[in-house]
């Protein structure tokens, strides 16, 4: 059995331990906070080690001599990098992954050359969250926008609204309403219950609908499920930390951006370093009078991305009350995400759920290329590359209706070279295909992995 060491029992470390232990992987979590480790041991079947993550003796106690992978996600960039160095030099661990937040490190690639810092994969939560928010802004009305096959295919989640052309009608009408546009509804969630869609399924208002389509067709499909929103122009970012700064810089290329920062020194820094077309405002985003004074109601999107969940929630609620069209709040506590999604806050963004998808794609076998956690980790969207041949694989040269997929698994798209295929039951899977799968119950993921993993024992 594969043995993986996770350094750090914070939100990302906990979420990753839960996902990997469910996959049947032998996990050891290291942290200096004994109470966090005790909580993890109570919840999951994993081992824990109390101590400082980069110390050789602690890594030895965690079983580093037998580990195939080390994932360093402590709150310290430096600890994560040093731990990877120790893991390589003393224990020869094959794969080393580090979460590194500071942009200075990312912008100095020579640090991570083969003969320098032995980190095989760098994870930047700020970059991942920024990309996630950017896609939501580019596609008004969406709850999630996920990309596969280097951007050729997108999986989009939207909430069906009263008045949408398809609401109250069967799914088979989708093709009639949009001739020539290839799309497939991969999953529907109705009052937190998963519904396996087919042609006779009737879409209801407030359904959370996930569909697969080429990027150029997202807007057309969205218009079938809800009133199409005008493109966004004015973005307000509450919080000028690492995420807020990166987000403002990225969005300034296409949108009019304002940043609210509470700390005066940080606000001065942002005013000096951000592009000249970004307006930096010194103030408290959770102060109702301040929001009124800066005319928050004229914003199309309000993104609350401070490091305080409660401040993000409160600021988002105030912005919504002032009439902002789309409100997004960065929420670290999973329980808060469950409470807020579909309420006053339009989109609750979970940094750890966005981050673990990138990690799972690297950890998993069976040709897994991309993983996106959905529905607060309860479901997953997976891109897997088909390997093997008709003799060694359970899927190669077989029609989709001949493959024994686990219950709740649906094939959304097949990418074959540059061609995007929205499959039917008679579509045949070929070696080299990139298959986009939607798994409504992540406990079934291990079965999906086994299905796509070639073996000499299969005939």
Summarize the model shown.
With 459 residues, the chain is α/β, with parallel strands linked by helices. The chain contains 15 helices and 22 strands. It has a six-stranded parallel beta sheet with strand order 3-2-1-4-5-6, sandwiched between helices. Strands 14-13-12-15-16-17 form a six-stranded parallel beta sheet, sandwiched between helices. A five-stranded antiparallel beta sheet has the order 7-8-11-9-10.
Report on this structure.
This protein folds into four domains: 3-123, NAD(P)-binding Rossmann-like Domain (Rossmann fold), CATH 3.40.50.720; 141-225, Regulator of K+ conductance, C-terminal domain (Alpha-Beta Plaits), CATH 3.30.70.1450; 234-248 and 277-349, 3-Layer(aba) Sandwich (Rossmann fold); 354-452, Alpha-Beta Plaits (2-Layer Sandwich). It has 15 helices and 22 strands. By secondary structure, the chain is an alpha/beta fold. The strands form four sheets. A six-stranded parallel beta sheet has the order 3-2-1-4-5-6, with helices on both faces. A six-stranded parallel beta sheet has the order 14-13-12-15-16-17, sandwiched between helices. Strands 7-8-11-9-10 form a five-stranded antiparallel beta sheet. This is Trk system potassium uptake protein TrkA. Keywords: Ion transport, NAD, Potassium, Potassium transport, Transport. InterPro entries: K_uptake_TrkA, NAD(P)-bd_dom_sf, RCK_C, RCK_C_sf, RCK_N, Trk_Ktr_HKT_K-transport.
């Amino acid at each position: 059995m594969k043995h993986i060491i996770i350094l750090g029992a914070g939100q990302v470390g906990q979420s990753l331990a839960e996902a990997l232990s469910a996959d049947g992987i032998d996990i050891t979590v290291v942290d200096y906070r004994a109470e966090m480790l005790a909580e993890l041991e109570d919840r999951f079947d994993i081992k824990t080690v109390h101590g400082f993550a980069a110390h050789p003796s602690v890594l030895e106690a965690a079983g580093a001599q037998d580990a195939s992978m080390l994932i360093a996600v402590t709150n310290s960039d430096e600890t994560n990098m040093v731990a990877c160095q120790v893991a390589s030099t003393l224990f020869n661990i094959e794969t080393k992954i580090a979460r590194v937040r500071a942009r200075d490190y990312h912008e100095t690639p020579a640090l991570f050359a083969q003969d320098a810092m032995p980190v095989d994969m760098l994870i930047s939560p700020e970059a991942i969250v920024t990309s996630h928010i950017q896609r939501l802004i580019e596609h008004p009305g969406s709850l999630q926008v996920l990309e596969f096959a280097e951007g050729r295919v997108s999986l989009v989640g939207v909430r069906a609204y009263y008045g949408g052309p398809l609401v109250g009608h069967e799914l088979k009408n989708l093709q009639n309403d949009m001739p020539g546009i290839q799309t497939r509804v991969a999953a529907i969630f109705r009052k937190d219950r998963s519904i396996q869609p087919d042609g006779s399924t009737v879409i209801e208002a407030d359904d959370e609908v996930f569909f697969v389509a080429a990027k150029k067709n997202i807007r057309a499909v969205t218009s079938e499920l809800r009133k199409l929103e005008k493109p966004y122009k004015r973005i307000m970012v509450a919080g000028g930390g690492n995420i807020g700064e990166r987000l403002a810089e990225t969005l300034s290329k296409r949108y009019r951006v304002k940043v609210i920062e509470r700390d005066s020194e940080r606000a001065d820094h942002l005013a000096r370093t951000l592009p000249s077309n970004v307006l930096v405002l010194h103030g408290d985003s959770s102060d109702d009078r301040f929001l009124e004074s800066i005319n928050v109601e004229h914003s199309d999107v309000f993104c609350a991305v401070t490091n305080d969940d409660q401040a993000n929630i409160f600021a988002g609620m105030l912005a919504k009350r002032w009439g902002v069209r789309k409100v997004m709040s960065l929420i670290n506590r999973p329980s808060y995400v469950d409470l807020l999604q579909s309420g006053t806050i339009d989109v609750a963004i979970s940094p750890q759920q966005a981050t673990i998808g990138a990690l799972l794609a690297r950890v998993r076998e069976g040709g897994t290329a991309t993983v996106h956690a959905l529905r607060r980790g309860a479901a997953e969207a997976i891109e897997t590359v088909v390997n093997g041949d008709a003799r060694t694989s359970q899927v190669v040269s077989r029609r989709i209706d001949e493959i024994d997929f686990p219950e709740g698994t649906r094939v959304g798209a097949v990418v074959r070279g540059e061609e995007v295929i929205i499959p039917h039951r008679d579509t045949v899977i070929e070696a080299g295909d990139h298959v986009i799968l939607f798994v409504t119950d992540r406990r079934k993921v291990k079965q999906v992995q086994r299905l796509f993993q070639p073996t000499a024992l299969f005939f």
